Structures are given as C-alpha cells and as structure tokens.
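ARCHIVE CARD
CATEGORY: sequence design from structure
SOURCE FIELD: tokenized fold
FIELD CONTENT:
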C-alpha cells in the first residue's frame, strides 16, 4: 500500500527501514522523504512506522544469538 503519494513510499518501505534500525520518525523522513511535502500522510506514516518497530524488534535480534556449547573432555 502506498502511504506517501508525494514521494511514492509504501508501508513496506517504512517497515523495511524500521526493521533495519531506523531510530525515529525524523530519521525515516530523512531516509525516505515520507511526509516531507504536503504532509497528508504523516499520521498514517507514523502509525506504520511505530507498528513496524514493534513487529521488527524480534527479527532485529536474529543473528545475535549466543549458543553455549560444552566440549567433551
Ligand atoms: S502524501 Fe506524503 S507528503 Fe504528501
């Protein structure tokens, strides 16, 4: 779904940015230019961003799992 018509930014673009570590909405605006023209998409873009950050929290931790191993003596 296109969230920002002015800059053709989709909910998926926002979710990818959020799960890639985008720290806040201002940084998202810098990255994607979402909500930087007419501003009509701001509320929706904020909601998608916050929702994506919550959903993206678990996948961001992947690859950082430490599994203890015990070597046989
Ligand atoms: S629709 Fe996003 S800035 Fe206009």
């Amino acid at each position: 779904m296109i969230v920002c018509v002015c800059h053709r930014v989709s909910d998926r673009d926002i979710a990818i940015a959020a799960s890639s570590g985008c720290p806040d909405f201002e940084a998202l605006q810098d990255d994607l230019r979402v909500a930087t023209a007419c501003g009509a998409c701001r509320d929706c873009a904020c909601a998608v961003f916050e929702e994506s950050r919550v959903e993206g929290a678990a996948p961001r931790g992947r690859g950082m799992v430490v599994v203890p191993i015990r070597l046989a003596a």
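CARD ANNOTATION: Residues 19 and 61 are 10 Å apart (CA to CA). Helices lie at 11-19, 25-32, 42-61.
SHELF: design records, drawer C
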